[in-house]
Specification:
Layout: E1 2-6, E2 12-16, H1 24-34, E3 36-37, E4 42-43, H2 47-52, E5 58-61, E6 72-73, E7 92-94, E8 99-101, E9 108-110, E10 133-136, H3 139-142, E11 149-155, H4 160-175, E12 182-188, E13 191-195, E14 205-209, H5 216-222, H6 246-249, E15 254-255, H7 260-268, H8 287-301, E16 307-313, H9 336-340, H10 347-364, E17 366-373, H11 380-390, E18 394-397, H12 403-413, E19 422-432, E20 436-442, E21 446-447, E22 467-474, E23 479-485, H13 491-494, E24 501-511, E25 517-528
Parallel strand pairs: 4-25, 6-10, 11-12, 11-16, 16-17, 17-18
Antiparallel strand pairs: 1-2, 3-5, 5-23, 7-8, 8-9, 10-25, 12-13, 12-15, 13-14, 19-22, 19-24, 20-23, 21-22, 24-25
Helix pairs in contact: 4-7, 8-10, 10-11
């Protein structure tokens, strides 16, 4: 029989095979089972055949897709000692010798002692044929439960009416946060103010200049993290494991259940930036410096733990790093034509700054979200690199009072299962059968530059690696994997048997919204097209 696959270029390629042609309903069932959609479900058998296809061999994968009846097991997965792939339903098992054969590298692996009772009638969940997607929770490997962290970075260079709308939206959003989540609060205008929510006796904040970046070392020194204590003389200081006390961290990142009164007071007392604005100038807005302070504060307090910087911006940055236009109103904001002609003098410098912010956030495992609410531009084009690489969210609206902004903000914290719905700090790895290589990923992630034999020479998107960082992800986050078929025409391919399978495995290690680290693995199987003569 013949499977018909139409390409977006209008070209028709026929993949002839002797197995039954799938019905559309069966493809939908496969997608619902594993969260994977592939344009080709019978894979071209040689590199030449794959190149002739207009649509590349690829897969769109939703790592955290909600899958009914997916097992969640309280132990660590079994990995192949050679290629580090995970035991799955396609692995061959010798129940007598207690050995399993890796699907990808064919390495023979011994089952550990706690699998001694395994048999054909007593299978662990990861070997059940229907459980091609499974999650593991191993407290021994993941350590203590880590609460999510949210830092609100609020622009005060907006009119009083807009501040009123923003106050109302922030008050509603903070009520939806889990009680154990940690909250920080930063405001910015001409200067950057970090509010000490852990000090409830009176409003207290630390002020930084808006004209320069702020490093972790400056945060440690100027915010008195080692007041009255001996500061370590060497090494990188980051979090409680490097000498910071939980008491010093809790001054600025406070559990939602403990700072409700102080946080509401800070939000209620928000006022317009008090510095005078001449009639012929724009407001002095230091967006870049504020985000630099937020990133460094998170890097000092909670590196490697899930956190989001949620920036609420109401106009263009005109002060310090990342500025996109001067204060003078005689200078217009750069347009698309200016970018095309390379006549926007501040653009490249701002992009370079936000690229450094992106690298810092990816290294720390933190997310940047942007809520840009203004009739004028705010600099999303410059910030895009930091938001994309960290898996952040962008909401654009004309006003903080617009329903698009208010509804979007509330929807972020609401979930159908009454949970937060947001996950953090993920790492995605892949394993492929022989003759299949990965060209790259298109989606909200950043390469971890893990060199691997699985990497193809041609790069599409984030490539030259077999592992990617996903700082922020949810149940709808999807990624496009583009593959390269490296098998060439030869005696082996001519003699290839009908129905031979190839395997792909996706491994996602992430911080669940409940705080614990989880590992989800999805393993799928597809057929090779049987021989070069079958592609017409």
């Amino acid at each position: 029989q013949v499977g018909y696959h139409f390409t977006c270029g209008g070209r028709l390629t026929l993949l002839a095979h002797k197995t039954a042609v799938y019905k559309m309903s069966e493809f939908l069932e496969l997608e619902a089972l594993d969260g994977i959609r592939m344009p080709w479900n019978v894979i071209p058998g040689t590199r030449e055949d794959a190149v002739s296809c207009v649509v590349p061999v690829s897969a769109i994968y939703t790592p955290l897709k909600s899958i009914p009846d997916m097992p969640v097991v309280p132990y660590a997965p079994l990995r192949c000692r050679m290629c580090r792939s995970i035991l799955n339903p396609f692995s061959r098992v010798d129940y007598n010798a207690k050995i399993w054969l890796c699907t990808f590298c064919f390495q023979r692996n011994q089952f550990p002692q706690h699998y001694s009772s395994i048999s054909e009638n007593n299978l662990p969940p990861e070997l059940f044929p229907q459980y091609t997607t499974i999650e593991y929770i191993s407290t021994a490997e993941t350590g203590p439960v880590m609460p999510p962290v949210f830092i609100f970075v609020v622009d005060t260079c907006i009119i009083e009416e807009e501040i009123g709308y923003l106050k109302s939206a922030l008050a509603q959003a903070t009520e939806l946060l889990p009680d154990n989540s940690l909250i920080g609060f930063i405001t910015f205008g001409t200067y950057v103010q970090v509010h000490e929510l852990g000090f409830g006796l009176l409003p207290k904040s630390y002020v930084f200049k808006g004209t320069k970046e702020v490093s972790k070392e400056q945060i440690l020194e100027q915010m008195c993290f080692f007041a009255g204590k001996q500061k370590p003389t060497t090494g990188v200081i980051a979090g409680t494991r490097d000498g910071l006390s939980s008491e010093s961290i809790s001054r600025f990142l406070v559990p939602a259940s403990e700072c409700e009164f102080v946080l509401n007071s800070v939000i209620e007392e928000l006022q317009k930036d008090p510095w005078h604005i001449p009639a012929d100038q724009r407001a002095s807005r230091c967006t870049g410096a504020a985000l630099s302070v937020a990133a460094s504060l998170l890097g000092v307090c909670v590196p490697g733990s899930g956190a989001r910087i949620m920036a609420f911006v109401g106009g263009p940055s005109t002060e310090g790093p990342g500025s996109i236009v001067s204060k003078s109103l005689t200078e217009p904001i750069r347009s698309h034509k200016d970018l095309d002609k390379d006549s926007a003098p501040l653009f490249d410098k701002a992009v370079k700054f936000y690229d450094q912010i992106a690298k810092q956030l990816v290294h720390q495992g933190h997310v940047l979200d942007l809520f840009a609410c203004a009739v004028d531009q705010v600099g999303v084009a410059e910030m895009k690199v930091a938001i994309e690489k960290t898996g952040g969210i962008v909401v654009l609206a004309e006003s903080f009072g617009h329903s698009v902004f208010k509804d979007s903000l509330l929807r972020i914290f609401q979930s159908a299962d009454n949970g937060l719905g947001l996950s953090f700090n993920g790492i995605l790895e892949i394993n492929c059968s022989k003759d299949v290589k990965i060209q790259g990923i298109i989606g909200p992630c950043s390469s971890l530059e893990k060199k691997s034999p699985l990497s193809a020479d041609t790069v599409i998107g984030q490539g030259n690696t077999s592992a990617w960082k996903m700082c922020g992800l949810d149940k709808k986050t999807s990624l496009c994997f583009v593959y390269d078929i490296s098998r060439k025409v030869g005696p082996d391919t001519v003699a290839q048997q009908t129905g031979e399978q190839l395997y792909l495995q996706f491994v996602t290690y992430y911080q669940h919204h409940e705080g614990q680290m989880r590992l989800r693995t999805t393993t799928i199987s597809r057929q090779w097209a049987s021989g070069a003569a079958t592609v017409q």
